[in-house]
Amino acid sequence: MKAVLVTGSTGGIGTATVGQLRRRGFTVYAGARGPADFGPDVRVVPLDVADPESVAAAAKRIAGEVEVLAAVINNAGVIVQGPLELVPADEWRRQLEVNTLGPASVIREFLPLLRAGTAAGSPGRIVNVSAATGRVAMPLLGALSASKAGLEALSNALRLELAPWKIPVVVIEPGTTETEIFTRAGVAAAAALERVDDSRVDLYRGHLAAYEKAMSRFKPGPVGKVAEVIVQAVEARHPRRRYAIAEARTFGAVLPNLPAPLRDKLLTTATGLGGVKVAES
């Protein structure tokens, strides 16, 4: 029996990943903050990655049922968007607690179950779902970019720390994907703006309108494709360090190597901010 843990299992990429792993014969532990039902073959575990006590309790429960985990898939994530000046402090904390500190807590608690397979020659592996914004910071996505950059650094450090046990650390970079996370991000951003002084919001009306128009041109890809790549990373005998999907292959691989002025110009154009005019004070 090969057992895996998937965090953030109740929507989008997480749900698709749980389904594909189950069909591949894995015993799937689906981490969920609320009620969930994936059928009799999936074991739902209460798990809020932003709550260290919840993570520890989930690890204790799973350790009581299996001796080894084949993989931990850190998929849980949120998107906090908006200009830095307009993002409240608690939203910044939420972004980092879920996207960066959350995976760190999960890895810390579940490493014993991953390491347990080393003696048999099949240690478990860590699969972190990141984003191209972790390598190229995007305007109006500074909080997200910071959180994913942290996840990237965490992954690179872990890869070296865990090398003696031959525990692979894999980063997945989805492109724009058909998932409700973007809708939820928009709702949360609108709610956050209501807490900010109107005079400050007015400074960025042009930014927000231009960005929304530019982002509407991106056609999201299916979640199933991302789930397939995650399963590939779980099953590969020698997984790659990074799997980039769709536009993330270009965005994350090419832009970091460009001269900074050219990179900034391309990002400004792509996000529609090149033509933004600010009102005279």
How would you characterize the overall build of this protein?
The chain has helices spanning 12-23, 52-63, 89-115, 142-161, 181-193, 198-203, 205-215, 223-235, 248-254, 260-270, and strands at residues 3-6, 27-32, 42-46, 71-74, 125-129, 169-173, 242-244. By secondary structure, it is of the alpha/beta class. It has one domain: Rossmann fold (3-Layer(aba) Sandwich). It has a seven-stranded parallel sheet, sandwiched between helices. β4, α3 (89-115) and β5 (125-129) form a beta-alpha-beta unit. The longest helix is centred in the middle third of the chain and has 27 residues, at 89-115.
Key phrases:
10 helices, 47% helix, single chain, globular, alpha/beta, 281 residues, 7 strands
Short description:
This protein is α/β, with parallel strands linked by helices.
Beta content = 5-15%
The CATH homology group name? NAD(P)-binding Rossmann-like Domain
Low-pLDDT ranges? none
**SS field, number of helical segments:** 10
Give the helices and strands, then pairings.
Blueprint: E1 3-6, H1 12-23, E2 27-32, E3 42-46, H2 52-63, E4 71-74, H3 89-115, E5 125-129, H4 142-161, E6 169-173, H5 181-193, H6 198-203, H7 205-215, H8 223-235, E7 242-244, H9 248-254, H10 260-270
Parallel strand pairs: 1-2, 1-4, 2-3, 4-5, 5-6, 6-7
